[in-house]
Design brief:
This protein is of the alpha/beta class and 394 residues long. It has 17 helices and 13 strands. The protein is globular and about 70 Å long.
Length: 394
């Protein structure tokens, strides 16, 4: 069993978001004693149908719960958004004010679309991600993670064939449960094609016009597709950095999928071997490290803000990290086991434009090095150092 880095408060109500299969339900089962919980699993069609027809049942059954009940858990609350209004009333009700509500969701899309009550100020919001390298500890395998990702279903699967089967099923489940059933798109075939193209472009600057041509839709539809992925927690936009917010917003973002295994599944590359020193390996490694940085920062609740930087001349820095009270952090990510001067050109050139910034290269080197103000660190050591987290794996 692996201990998650997310530390959920037991004495407050919580909205816990995370992509399907990231382990939200498991985390709650491990955190709360079943005999003290009133549990609603909305992935159960019977339960979903029952509460969809009469959301007030949640109110009635909560009022009728055993005196020993301390928590009410509603799993995948986006299935019945109206329940959030009921939870709101229960939080305000003196008779049930002692209870804490734990609500999970794998999609904010339906909640936003329905104008759902998101309990602002009445519930803390957290995110859960696939396993981090720090959570897996000694069981972490970089090559396995780049090839198949780190969703709990993959990590717990025995053998590569089982991992592939899980991932293919995951892709189909996403299309069926999150997209088709919720009617997020009018036509599924163009969206399916978009997923493949998006996976191929993961970690690159979005070129909506080119993607629209490849998929056979207009640019507005492509932008809507990306927002669906972000709302269903399958990826995130990484904005371009500029000290001026106005200029920052005028530059095109990148988009990263949340898991390398899902990325390779959508690309149709699960049966292709991963070879070091190839561009595919390097891109997956960069995507993996970027995801690690962002998810560890969320778990640490350090309010870091992440961007990328690219000049008209083609110089690029993978991550620009704004850290409250600390110098700007510039991170270059390299998948090689050796880092030469050519690999540091962007850091050296652009780093001089940000006096006081800390310049770091995270790579698969064995030992830390420093050359002319640039730190070259083993990637895992860099994650531990800059994001101040300790492994909690068992």
């Amino acid at each position: 069993m692996y201990q998650r880095l997310l530390d959920l408060p037991l004495d407050q109500s919580v909205l816990l978001f995370g992509p399907r299969g990231s382990g939200k339900s498991t985390l709650l089962r491990e955190s709360f004693a079943q005999e003290h919980c009133l549990w609603y699993d909305l992935l159960d069609p019977v339960e979903e149908s029952r509460l969809s027809a009469e959301p007030q049942l949640l109110l009635k059954e909560t009022h009728g719960a055993r005196k020993s009940t301390t928590h009410v858990i509603v799993d995948e609350v986006q299935k019945v958004p109206k329940l959030l209004d009921v939870v709101h009333s229960l939080i305000e009700d003196p008779a049930t004010r002692h209870l804490r509500f734990m609500l999970t969701g794998s999609s904010a899309r339906k909640l936003k679309r329905g104008g759902a009550n998101l309990l602002a100020g009445r519930a803390l919001v957290f995110s859960l991600h696939p396993f981090s390298a720090l959570e897996l500890g000694a069981d972490f395998n970089l090559f396995e993670t780049l090839a198949y990702g780190a969703l709990p279903g993959v990590v717990n699967a025995k053998g590569s064939q089982s991992k592939k089967r899980f991932l293919r099923s995951y892709g189909l489940t996403y299309l069926k449960e999150e997209v088709q059933v919720e009617q997020l798109v009018r036509q599924l075939d163009p969206f399916r094609k978009f997923l493949q193209v998006c996976a191929q472009c993961s970690g690159k600057i979005i070129n909506a016009a080119a993607i629209a041509r490849d998929v056979g839709v207009d640019e507005k539809t492509v932008k809507n597709y990306y927002s669906i992925l972000e709302d269903t927690l399958l990826g995130f936009h990484l904005e371009a950095y500029h000290s001026s917010v106005r200029k920052r917003l005028s530059l095109k973002p990148k988009f990263y999928l949340f898991d390398t295994g899902v990325q390779r599944t959508l690309m149709g590359h699960l049966n292709l071997p991963l070879a070091e020193s190839t561009s595919a390996f390097g891109e997956l490694f960069k995507s993996f490290v970027v995801n690690e940085c962002l998810r560890l920062s969320q778990y640490a609740e350090n309010d870091y803000r992440f961007f990328y930087l690219r000049t008209k001349e083609g110089l690029e820095i993978d991550l620009v990290v704004e850290r409250p009270g600390l110098p700007l952090l510039l991170i270059e990510i390299k998948s090689g086991t050796q880092v030469g001067e050519a690999h540091l050109k962007s850091l050296r050139t652009l780093g001089s434009d940000f006096p006081g910034a800390e310049c770091v290269c995270l790579a698969r080197v064995l030992r830390a090095q420093e050359t002319a103000g640039v730190k070259i660190l083993p990637w895992l050591d860099g994650l531990k150092h800059y994001f101040a987290l300790e492994t909690g794996s068992e």
